[in-house]
Please model this.
Amino acid sequence: MAQKTIVQAINEALDQVMEKDSTVMVLGLDVGKNGGVFRVTDKLQEKHGDTRVVDTPIAESGMVGTAIGLAVNGFKPIVEMQFMGFIYSAMDQLCSQAARVRTRTQGQFSVPMVVRGPFGGGVHALELHCDSYEAFFAHTPGLKVVIPSNPYDAKGLLISAINDPDPVVFFEPMRIYRSIRDEVPEEMYQIPLGQANVSLEGEDVTIISWGAPVTTAKQVAEKMKVEKGISCEVIDLRSLVPLDVDTIIQSVKKTGRAIVMHEAVKTGGFGSEVATKIMEEAFLYLECPIERVTGFDTPYPFSQIEKEWMPNEDRLREAIHKVLNY
Model:
């Protein structure tokens, strides 16, 4: 098995699915000749042709609207958002059209499409490039929301998303696009949507996260084990919709303490939903209130202060000590 980055794993997934299924196609800004702004679609147009890897105008609503039409007519389109922060202009197509087709047609039609692209901060980009909008789509019935945290999951989850009969919004953590490597099988494989991963087992406190913060959580957990003898369990949700509630509850019942960590702003973030699920199903097992380590309730800041704005190691350490010393 070769060591691959998230970018390489996603490129391989796209290539293999397109090789196997002629109904799969890719649309987006510069995805063809240039291979995408992060080269995620590199060489796909050269191999599969410009009718299956399509360079579109700068019109996110047009890309997604076109993909919906393709999807209900037998194709499996994959739309690349150059940055997920540009998805606002496609919200109408996603939330009021793609998400409702199955219900509106009483199951006669579905929309097997994926909207994927980079999100999250920590790369010194401008504000709209770095926002985390996953809660918007998790709040929209009919959409599935998937967020890998490593190359192995990125390939397996994307293949599952492409093969899913319903629309999937697939967020790719930009900060760790190339900074981490993982063993990724050459062959195709799928990771079921709605199946969380216990990335690190522990006994004292449960840390629940998704995307790039999972890497931070694991680093802090490993250091706390060596430095303080504190045993943290790290759960990588992998998908927010569907949500693996059982894995969360089992862990919290074991540790009695829970921290939710995500880059999105605190108010209305998906961490609130996770905390509510814990309160509903494991309240009597809790030893202390649930902590949230998140972005602040402001627009994404200038790059000079983004390290302080994002949920970082220091803030997670403080939360761990707080729940243990309650």
User: Anything to note?
Assistant: The chain has a mean pLDDT of 96.
